[in-house]
Amino acid sequence: MVHCLPKVFVIQDKPMLPSTAAVAKDEHRPLAFDASILGSESNIPSQFIWPDDEKPCLDAPALVIPTIDLGAFLLGDSLAVSKAAEVVNEACKKHGFFLVVNHGVDSGLIDKAHQYMDRFFSLQLSEKQKAKRKVGESYGYASSFVGRFSSKLPWKETLSFRRLYQEYCEAMNKVSQEIMGLLGISLGLDQAYFKDFFEQNDSILRLNHYPPCQKPELTLGTGPHTDPTSLTILHQDQVGGLQVFADEKWHSVAPIPGAFVVNVGDTFMALTNGFYKSCLHRAVVNTETVRKSLAFFLCPELERPVTPAAGLVTAENPRKYPDFTWAALLKFTQNHYRADMKTLVAFSKWVQEQESNYKLIP
Ligand SMILES: C=C1C[C@]23C[C@@]1(O)CC[C@H]2[C@]1(C)CCC[C@@](C)(C(=O)O)[C@H]1[C@@H]3C(=O)O
Ligand SMILES: O=C(O)CCC(=O)C(=O)O
Ligand SMILES: [Fe+2]
């Protein structure tokens, strides 16, 4: 009901996905999230309250995270290479998540990227809205996706783009190529296999800005999901809030200055025919401090067929997913399905349905 809505909301366009929440008359119109005001609001709007079975635990135990010394791997010493390959193989088969240190990315560049981010998110909402993401597009400014969803809204604002932040993206591209070399070796493939596959790519950089929340036990900065993309290289600030699901429970991932958090996404899981798991994760918020993260999502070229390496399809491990393109999966997550922990299964079903519908047309 309109009188329940705090004044921080501004009316925007219609949502693309049907609401699953009971919405009162005027709540059919989605709203915008003004971080500067909502951070001190103790009356949390219902659209931001997550169902009980998905509510966060704020004191999750810390995960012991496998760590890769990328510098040592790149020197090519055979012992360091086989050690690194063993660590990623184990981590990716189990939960799809590891840390990378000694990666060679200048700390000044990372700091600069965070400072630019501060400048953007501290602008007034009306200014940020000038970069607003258009319906059906995956780039631009989004405040809680109020134009896309109407329940389980994430407590965050994001800015996603492809070409800006050139220097940072180039550094991430280089690191991701090196990690792809290591992932190839770890699967018994040629070091060049995934490097070649991802040499041309349609990657995305996303800046996540999580304002404080007075009731963090009710909300989520980013809901539980696996990334539909291939490999995510995330830099989180020192606040903490990232959680990973491993050994049947949620764990917190303590920030380590200068380290990158790397996780496998659904597209890479498909490329390995399910050998490597896409990592289930989420982000919680807190009452005191703004939290920021920079996520580089390595993605294949939009139209390049995503099909598993021949050596990974065997009699014991037959094909798990249909061939697809990143363009199709991206479209699926932007227009039909909100990425969660079951995206790849839902998408595979959708692809198969599309194919059988197509065959029915004479
Ligand atoms: C292709 C993508 C969709 C989301 C951004 C991303 O680049 C990779 C992860 C996806 C996401 C973060 C998963 C949780 C739900 C989501 C809506 C979000 O909270 O941001 C997802 C992103 C999206 O814009 O659809
Ligand atoms: O902010 C974080 O720590 C995680 C963000 C995330 O999972 C995402 O953007 O896909
Ligand atoms: Fe993610």
From TrEMBL:
Residues 200-300 form the Fe2OG dioxygenase domain. It catalyses: gibberellin A12 + 2 2-oxoglutarate + 3 O2 + H(+) = gibberellin A9 + 2 succinate + 3 CO2 + 2 H2O. Pathway: Plant hormone biosynthesis; gibberellin biosynthesis; Hormone biosynthesis. GO terms for biological process: gibberellin biosynthetic process. Keywords: Iron, Metal-binding, Oxidoreductase. It comes from the Eukaryota. Pfam families: 2OG-FeII_Oxy (PF03171), DIOX_N (PF14226). Its cofactor is L-ascorbate. SUPFAM superfamilies: Clavaminate synthase-like (SSF51197). Coiled coil: none annotated. One of its GO terms (molecular function) is metal ion binding. Belongs to the iron/ascorbate-dependent oxidoreductase family. GA20OX subfamily. This is Fe2OG dioxygenase domain-containing protein. It comes from Gossypium barbadense (Sea Island cotton).
